[in-house]
Amino acid sequence: MDLVLDKVKKSFKNTMAVDDVSIGLQSGLYGLLGSNGAGKTTLMRMICTIMNPTEGSISYDGVDIFKMNAQYRNILGYLPQEFGFYPDLKVRDYLKYISALKGLKHFAAKKRIDEVLELTGMLSDATKKMNDLSGGMKRRVGIAQSLLNDPKILILDEPTSGLDPMERIRFRNMIGQLANDRIVLLSTHIVSDIEATAKEVFLMQKGKIIDRGTITDLCNSIPCRVWICRVKTCEADKIIATTRHPIAAIKNDGDYTEIKMLAGEKPSIEARCVGASLEDVFLYHFGENGGERDA
């Protein structure tokens, strides 16, 4: 099971949305991490054959996915950022409709719908109209529809948008289990979605993959270090306003404030060094003041 992107590019007039991306995916969960506008959605839409690359190729087990046609779509599940639905359809009826579009036989569809409703925690809400669902519940239905054909390749574009913290934890656990025997590519700008479960993470910026690796590799790769400075709260505002270093977190506990920042050298005498997290990696590459010039 190999999904290979080879020198993939996608341009729109004078804009290069995806620029020379080459990656290979096998079974497991992969994270595609980047800020909004990085090109993540365009890349995923090409993997789902919704768009054709301007240059390069995408193949599954050595065969071009655009030549596989229905054979490829039969093994593909896709959750876009926004998915369409008829507002007056009940959840179960919506999933029946999607099952028919995916070519599932009636008996197989009925059984599978029950399975994905149970998996996404929507079984008790199956008779509600789509328009009456909360944003998080609609998102869970979107996840359910992407799983109907038990896909070998699962593409999820910002899947936890609108989910509350408990739903997000449930989703992470579910996707971690699903990734055992399929390729899962999850696009997000929410670091916690992938920090505990991703086999490998791709960092995307301005259409390019600027770094990749395991979370440990990425945390070890940033050329600056992560420091916590504990200062008197009365002095904290001045330090925060004047520092050139990217600030990852601020914690006030009364008389003292802890400031977590990225810096190439020890920023103050009292600063202590701590291990980098994926969130620190994200800040370094994508933060407003991120990058070596400021760290």
TrEMBL record:
Entry keywords, A to Z: ATP-binding, Nucleotide-binding, Transport
A single GO molecular function term of this UniProt record: ATP binding
Domain ABC transporter intervals: 3-231
Domain of life the protein comes from: Bacteria
Pfam family for this entry, one: ABC_tran
InterPro entries: AAA+_ATPase (IPR003593), ABC_transporter-like_ATP-bd (IPR003439), ABC_transporter-like_CS (IPR017871), P-loop_NTPase (IPR027417)
Name of the molecule in the record: ABC-type multidrug transport system, ATPase component
Organism encoding this protein: Eubacterium cellulosolvens (strain ATCC 43171 / JCM 9499 / 6)
Organism taxonomic ancestry: Bacteria, Bacillati, Bacillota, Clostridia, Eubacteriales
